[in-house]
Amino acid sequence: MQKKALRALLEEVRRGDTPVDKALEALRDLPFSDLGFASVDHHRALRTGLPEVIFGMGKTLLQIIAIVREISAKGHPVLVTRIGPETGAALVREFPTIVHDAVARTAVLALETTDTPGELPTTRGRGPICVVTAGTSDIPVAREAVVTARAFGNDVTELFDVGVAGLHRLLAKRAVLYAASVVIVVAGMEGALASVVGGLVDKPVIAVPTSIGYGASFEGLAALLSMLNSCASGVTVVNIDNGFGAAYSATLINQAGML
Question: In the chain, what are the domains?
């Protein structure tokens, strides 16, 4: 339950428009629902401003479907991350309005009406979140960040394949960088793009190392260490391939005080 929805319910009780027993029924499943295999946290949006997200890896299809139903039934949009194409296709069959992004490995079930309690606005925040990739191979992780940021109500811009091997590509589009309120930089290999962007903008930069690269990149460890050792001020780093975590943090920055 979102703060806005809870406040509206309490106001209805105060005015006498909603009986106390009906309000108690609406609050019955706070703070969580026990599904046996999962405890779905309905209280999370009230505590943090953002609803629970389903991490699909390791879960069965039936488990994911049950959790999607539970979250959406309580008036929340649903984001599922790290799912394969078969699970994505099955979710589309089960929930015809769900949007599966095979590249991002995500599925998003938005709510249909703007008056639905718990629905996030189409856009909010201080400005767009810009997601930048060094190479085309980094796009799957970047798409996870894009989908997540949009699901949480942010405007998102994209600059893909603008890495340091051809820096003129980034500089030609630096106006997009300057317009962003937060920048997410996704890069593998040596991860140098995060430092470059950090030296160009006056906004927070969240760096995402990816597992893309040859042997000595050590599946993203080289990029991670490079980003952690960046000499550019204002660069923070999330875990390898963690596009979701970067977008979540960017949302908290972009929407601080609005959640």
Answer: 3-109 (no CATH), 129-254 (3.40.50.1970)
